[in-house]
Amino acid sequence: RNNRLKRLMELRAPDIIIRNEKRMLQEAVDALFDNGRRGRVITGANKRPLKSLADMLKGKQGRFRQNLLGKRVDYSGRSVIVVGPELKLHQCGLPKKMALELFKPFIYSRLEAKGLSSTVKQAKKLVEKERPEVWDILDEVIREHPVLLNRAPTLHRLGIQAFEPMLIEGKAIQLHPLVCSAFNADFDGDQMAVHVPLSLEAQLEARVLMMSTNNVLSPANGAPIIVPSQDMVLGLYYTTMQREGMKGEGMVFADIEEVEHALAAGEVHLHAKVQGRILQIDENGNEVVKRYET
């Protein structure tokens, strides 16, 4: 259009034609910068709006948010979270298939070190076939190797924390219920990302600074962020409740273990009043056995 305008001006075309040509040139430049900003959207042959420079930059799929502010990274995974009430505070449940994919390089090197494969190609075949020895090695690899769990949006530093992975069946990540408030997570379909710290320094840093057991207090105000809520409060209330005339009332036990055995055997009810000896430490640091009624 620019060349056409130049040619028309050289030919001394009428004013109205030149004005129309200038308007069309301006529209083309406007559409190049931001299509649809000024009036009509210019479409291509397939009736789709043409992509302008502004469209390439803006929005979630634009250059800034897609490639500069956040990138896809290796050694990471993503899955739905479910509750893991039997986990310890510093643990998370990691699906076996997911762990196998995330820790592949470590598995390859361990397979070679143990003499189970002589080349990386052989190691790859063993992992693809999911041989029993591969699962044993995966167990060794993930032991003492923390992983980072992140829930978007990461609004404060507790939005990304380190956990020791426990291998589980299924495809969902298990999360300890007490760390939910830090992540602002619930189990209605939330997803979380897993990242593997590779170097020893990164692993050490994750363990010392980012472990969930080291993040009990909120960085904002120092108030405890790991507090029992909902079903945990109900469970604590139920287990410590006392009722008259229950089975095993008045029994005397030598220590806590005896109480546990009696409960497991059904000899005593959870709510029965019993007496037991509990080992404690006094002000001078000496061990003393005290008798309690509960």
Summarize the structure.
By secondary structure, this protein is of the alpha/beta class. It is built from twelve helices and nine strands. The strands form two sheets. The protein has a six-stranded mixed beta sheet.
Please, could you describe this protein's structure?
- By secondary structure, the chain is of the alpha/beta class.
- It folds into 3 domains: 2-68, no CATH class; 76-214, Barwin-like endoglucanases, CATH 2.40.40; 241-293, no CATH class.
- Helices cover 38% and strands 17% of the residues.
- The protein has 12 helices and 9 strands.
- It has helices spanning 2-10, 15-34, 53-57, 63-68, 96-102, 104-113, 120-129, 132-142, 180-183, 200-210, 231-239, 256-265; strands at residues 76-83, 91-95, 147-150, 160-168, 173-175, 191-195, 252-253, 275-281, 287-293.
- The strands form 2 sheets. Strands 2-4-3-6-1-5 form a 6-stranded mixed β-sheet. A 3-stranded mixed β-sheet has the order 7-8-9.
- It is elongated and about 115 Å long.
- The protein starts with a helix and ends with a strand.
- The mean pLDDT is 88.
